Amino acid sequence: NAGVTQTPKFQVLKTGQSMTLQCAQDMNHEYMSWYRQDPGMGLRLIHYSVGAGITDQGEVPNGYNVSRSTTEDFPLRLLSAAPSQTSVYFCASSPQGTDEQYFGPGTRLTVT
Amino acid sequence: KDQVFQPSTVASSEGAVVEIFCNHSVSNAYNFFWYLHFPGCAPRLLVKGSKPSQQGRYNMTYERFSSSLLILQVREADAAVYYCAVECGSARQLTFGSGTQLTVLP
Q1: B4: which chain A residues are within 8 Å (Cβ-Cβ)?
Q2: Which of A25, A73, A112, B38 could form a disulfide with A93 if both were Cys (CB 3.0 to 4.6 A apart)?
Q3: Burial of A39 (0-12, 13-18, 19+ CB in 10 A)
Q4: What is the pLDDT of residues B21-53, one digit of tens each?
Q5: Distance CA A92, CA A100 (A)
């Protein structure tokens, strides 16, 4: 199994541009989530999904959209990038929310 | 607002036992999770639970609103960021602390 994969690994955007961060897992996990990591702030939950077709907001959802059309994929969309969205983004999955979450390697995003 | 608190830095000498403390203000919390994170890599679960538990050199203590991670015989290679997280909410999502940077002195 490849586990949780994220693409791209690095990305630079200009303010106002849009993009999608990709996340995929091949472990048939129901639960997937997106976090952002900022210095001194730890990992903050952006959005999560408890199964295909179901998504919900986490602690910091503003400026981000998600969808979950399949069990495997959970893309994160930035509709109009802002410098405040400069961060490292981690995707994670688990069989259920209560189980160990398996993290991807992260995407480092810089918005200028 | 539900919050999880942990020190920003901890330093230890090589070979010692190092303790990283975590407490929270989450009213409907379930388990504690302790993750290890090396920069550029995926965070990795070390130990979890709602009771004291051990995984290799990693021990976890448990109280309702606090937990400590104890790393036995700490090594320079253990220098990393350690995250405490609390499971909460109807969907049992994780709320993370801000992370503790462990420095190991030779």
Answers
A1: 42
A2: A25
A3: exposed
A4: 999 998 878 889 999 999 889 999 999 988 999
A5: 10
Closest-CA residue to B25 (of B70, B66, B79, B59): B66
Measured between alpha carbons, how far apart are the two ends of chain A, in Å? 36
The tally of CA atoms less than 13 A away on the side-chain side of residue A110 is: 4
Nearest to A106 among B4, B42, B96 (CB): B42
Q: What's the rounded mean pLDDT across residues B66-82?
A: 97
Distance CA B40, CA B71 (A): 22
Nearest CA in chain B to A54: B91
**DSSP per position, B65-99:** TEEEEEESS--GGG-SEEEEEEEETTTTEEEE---
Residue of chain A whose alpha carbon sits nearest to that of B4: A42
Nearest-angstrom CA–CA distance, A29 and A14 = 34
* C-alpha torsion sign, points A29, A71, A106, A81: negative
- Alpha-carbon span A52 to A28, nearest angstrom: 11
pLDDT at A95: 86
